[in-house]
User: Which sequence fits this backbone?
């Protein structure tokens, strides 16, 4: 994970074009993102995809999503910091479960909206169920003793 993160950091520092990091997404892939706006781009991407509705997914489903996402990131090909996978595992250990609506999708893959609701808690937004009740993502992370990874994935 550290090696792939170092590649991303080097490319950004060198001013290279990296889809979704130093550029927009989809039709905006040719739009250059200034270095001081990269974190904002990532947060806005999460915000724009939190488009789910309906009853929240069951706790066991959300826990499986957290575990699967931590595992996928730990493979080391995503360019994220190891702290992100550690935060996901910490959420599992502290029973901080993002509230993820059961319906809704963005794009053809079907997982973008649910994963955006998961990611919203990681950036201190959205809502989470905790052992002491439902609260904002920021409050849930704080109560669990985890700092938000806002804009630094």
Assistant:
């Amino acid at each position: 994970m550290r090696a792939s993160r170092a590649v991303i950091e080097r490319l950004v520092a060198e001013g290279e074009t990296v889809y979704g990091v130093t550029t927009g997404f989809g039709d905006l892939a040719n739009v250059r993102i200034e270095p001081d706006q990269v974190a904002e781009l990532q947060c806005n991407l999460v915000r724009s995809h939190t488009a789910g509705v309906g009853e929240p997914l069951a706790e066991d489903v959300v826990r499986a999503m957290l575990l699967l996402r931590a595992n996928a990131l730990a493979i080391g090909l995503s360019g994220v910091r190891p702290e992100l996978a550690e935060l996901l595992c910490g959420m599992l250990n502290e029973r901080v479960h993002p509230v993820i609506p059961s319906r809704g999708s963005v794009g053809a893959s079907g997982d973008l909206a649910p994963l955006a609701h998961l990611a919203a808690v990681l950036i201190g937004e959205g809502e989470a169920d905790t052992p002491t009740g439902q609260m904002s993502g920021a409050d849930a992370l704080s109560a669990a003793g985890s700092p938000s990874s806002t804009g630094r994935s």
In short: The chain has one domain: 2-143. Residues 2-143 form a domain with the Fumarase C; Chain B, domain 1 fold (CATH 1.10.275.10).
